[in-house]
Structures are given as C-alpha cells and as structure tokens.
Design goal:
Blueprint: H1 3-17, H2 37-50, E1 57-58, E2 64-68, E3 79-84, E4 99-101, E5 109-110, E6 118-119, E7 135-137, H3 146-164, E8 173-178, H4 192-195, E9 199-205, E10 210-215, E11 217-226, H5 242-251, E12 269-277, E13 281-290, H6 293-312, E14 318-327, H7 331-334, H8 338-350, E15 356-360, H9 365-371, E16 378-380, E17 383-384, E18 392-394, H10 395-414
Parallel strand pairs: 3-8, 3-9, 9-16, 10-15
Antiparallel strand pairs: 1-2, 2-8, 4-7, 5-6, 7-18, 10-16, 11-13, 11-14, 12-13, 17-18
Helix pairs in contact: 1-3, 1-10, 3-10, 5-6, 8-10
C-alpha cells in the first residue's frame, strides 16, 4: 500500500475531523446525547459517497452504516469495521487546534495555548518509543479527540484505498460509525441484523500492535437512602438526615481494596462516581467492574449488605438498591470465535507488527456488541492519554492502522 496515499488520506482526514466538536453528554436523555455529533456523521456520509459508496447513510439515531462491496469470486464472510465519532465529556472538545510536531526529537511538548499543560515523555512511557515520528497534539485548552477520530480517519482512509484499488481481493466490508460511546450508549440502538456482518472490529485501542481481546464486565448501581426532613429548629428525635446516612455508608467502604485507586491488572473495583442528596433523600451512583462477570454479583451483594447495615444504624432510615447491566467481557464471546482474533493477528503480522493481546480495564462498543451476538475485538488506532488535554497520537501509528484494516480484508478473503 503506497505510503503517500496513507499519509495524504489518514492524517489530512484526522486533522479535519478533530475540529468538529462531537462531545457527548451524560446529562442528556436524547439519542444521540448531543445533536452536534450529527455534523461529523453527515460529513462522513458525504465523503463515503464521494468514494463511490452509494449506500452510505446516517439514521435518526446518529449511526452511520456503509458498504464496501466485495470483489472476490469466493463466498467471503462479511466483516465490519467500527469507530465512534463522539469525544469524552471529561474535557472540552470545542475549538480543537491540532498541532503536528513533525519528526519529534524526544523533548517535552509544551502546549502553546496553555503552557502549564506539558506532555512529558517521563510521564508517558509509550511516547518515549515515538522519537522521529510525527506526534499530533491539541493546543492545551482542549482534548485532541484522537479517541476515536484516529479510528474514524483510519477507517475512512482504508475505505478510500480499497475503493481505489479493485485489484485487492476482499469480501464485503461493512463500515459503522457510532455516537455516544464515551457515555456507554454507543451500541444502544445498533441494529446487528441490519448491519449484516459475521463479526466486527472497533478501531479504538492504543498502542501500535496491541489488540484488546478482553475487557472488564461492567454494571451500574444506585444506592439510595430515604430519610425524613423537618424544620431543623424542631428536629430532635424526628429528623433523619439522608446526607449523613449516605456519608456513613461511604465511610464503610474498604479503603485498602475494591476501589480504582487501590487496584490494578485483573482486580475489579466498585467506584462511587456521583452523589446527590437532600436531608430527605440521597443517592450514590456506582460503576462496578471486573474481568470475571460473577465477581460483579459478589461486589454488588456486599454493597447491598453495607447499605442495609447503614440504614439499620439510623433508626427510621431506609435503603434501596438498583443494579443495571452495562456490558460484559468480550473475551467470553471471542473465546468461542477464535478465527475472529486469529485473522486479526495475521493482519498485524502482514503489516510488520508482532500482535500483542491485551486485557483493558474498561469497555468498548465491542463489549456490548459481542454480548449482542457480534464478536468485536478492539484494534489499535494509536491514540494515547485519552479524555485529557495531554491526548496525543502518532501519524505513523494511524497509517499503520490503515494498513492493518486493508490486510484484514485480504486475510478474510484468502481464508474463505
């Protein structure tokens, strides 16, 4: 695959795409959560059609589907390639100014619009391996949006290459761009039957050569305490302060384990990430994560027991617990579909990479989609330091991601 094509396509596309503000919002009840995501999705549809992909379309839910027609005489399984257009609510995505630090020499990168934001190799080990590469950052006041516009750009560049090189044999490739992945809703309205693929691959991982074949399983949980409010001047033996009950409950959580700040590797956690309350009623929201799905139930039972014990210590208070499944470890599904992972490994090898399987302490659209019946491992895009103003990506890593996608289509055709 000509390097010039990759560079003029993937990097140029990426630098344009990050200027679209596509930040999703956890506070919204709409789908997608923000209408501004439509702008980039509609632009992608326009560009796909310009490449000759005439069925490219965006639906009312913000999902973009498109088809690269197969050109093989074989019956080749349909595969999907996915990325998400939204960026994290945790840092501003407005007026992103991408900067290309060409042939980076290894020095600290000081962001010009906020010199207090410094990207230091000493704090980002993966960056140390990028000397001589073209590093792209934002200007210091926003995130970059490489998560996941690096994946979006790589897919678009790969689509361009396959459409312009019909001599490359491949089966049908379905393209999908989702909204709201960052707030856990990316697969909520994804119609797997309409997508029509045997499997899919999200282009949303980090380091070149890594492949995420396991993710956390995740649930959300709300612990509520009902108190009783009355005038504080006449509250003796009457008031039950739900805020104080909630504080007591939080103080009972283990300090040396079961939290994100005390766990690593394959250890799961419970994480209170939102607290709202009045004297009458208080609610604590948790996310619960573990690679082993049954462990979630154990942690949830422990929290429910602590909530009951806390309420009992405050006579008249009541506790209520609600649990909602978020996603499950995609490794459970991939283990039953080994060809999905092995074909990706071969695509890595053909791209000059040594594949490295990875288990990530988080989830992807692929976690949900795998549980819904579409096995979906996560391939690298090259994005690093996601959700922060330190976010960065190597242009060469994005180019390599394009190469992997093209080789992936070839491998599936050859092995059909």
């Amino acid at each position: 695959m000509p390097a010039t094509l990759q560079k003029t396509s993937v990097v140029e596309r990426f630098l344009r795409y990050v200027t679209y503000d596509t930040q999703s919002s956890e506070k919204s009840d709409t789908y997608p959560s923000t209408s501004k995501q439509f702008a980039l999705s509609d632009q992608l549809v326009k560009e796909l059609r310009e490449l000759g992909i005439q069925d490219a379309a965006r639906d009312a839910n913000g999902l973009v589907f498109a088809t690269i027609p197969g050109n093989s005489p074989k019956t080749v399984p349909v595969i999907g390639i996915l990325a998400h257009v939204d960026t994290s609510p945790e840092a501003s995505g407005t007026n992103v100014k991408p900067i290309v630090h060409a042939a980076w020499r290894g020095e600290d990168i000081v962001m010009p619009d906020d010199p207090s934001v410094v990207l230091r190799p000493s704090e980002h080990p993966e960056l140390k391996q990028q000397i001589g590469q073209d590093i792209i950052t934002a200007s210091g006041t926003t995130l970059l949006g490489a998560d996941d516009k690096a994946g979006v750009a790589a897919i678009m560049a790969a689509a361009e290459h396959l459409m312009r090189h019909p001599e490359i044999p491949h089966g049908t490739v379905r393209i999908g761009f989702t909204p709201d992945e960052e707030i856990g809703r990316g697969a909520d309205r994804f119609d797997i039957r309409a997508f029509g693929a045997l499997c899919a691959y999200t282009i949303d991982g980090e380091s070149r050569g890594t492949m995420d074949v396991e993710t956390f399983s995740g649930d959300s949980m709300v612990v509520e305490f009902q108190g009783f409010n009355t005038h504080p001047g006449f509250a003796k033996n009457k008031m039950i302060n739900a805020i104080r009950v909630a504080a007591d409950f939080l103080s009972r959580l283990p300090r040396d384990r079961m939290s994100p700040e005390t766990t690593e590797l394959r250890r799961g956690y419970v994480h209170p990430n939102q607290l709202e309350g009045t004297v009458d009623h208080a609610a604590i929201k948790f996310i619960i994560r573990d690679f082993d799905s049954p462990e979630l139930k154990k942690m949830e039972e422990q929290l429910e027991r602590l909530a009951r014990e806390t309420a009992a210590a405050w006579p008249g208070a009541r506790s209520m617990v609600r649990v909602q499944e978020s996603y499950r470890n995609l490794g459970d599904v991939l283990a039953q579909n080994p060809a999905v992972v092995e074909n990706a490994r071969e695509a890595y090898r053909r791209s000059g990479l040594q594949p490295r399987d990875n288990a990530i302490r988080g989830g992807t659209d692929g976690s949900r989609l795998s549980a819904m019946g579409l096995p979906t491992p996560n391939l690298f895009s090259g994005a690093h330091a996601a959700h922060s103003r330190h976010e960065w990506v190597s242009a060469q890593d994005m180019e390599k991601a394009v190469e992997v996608i093209v080789n992936l289509a070839r491998v599936w055709e050859e092995r059909a």
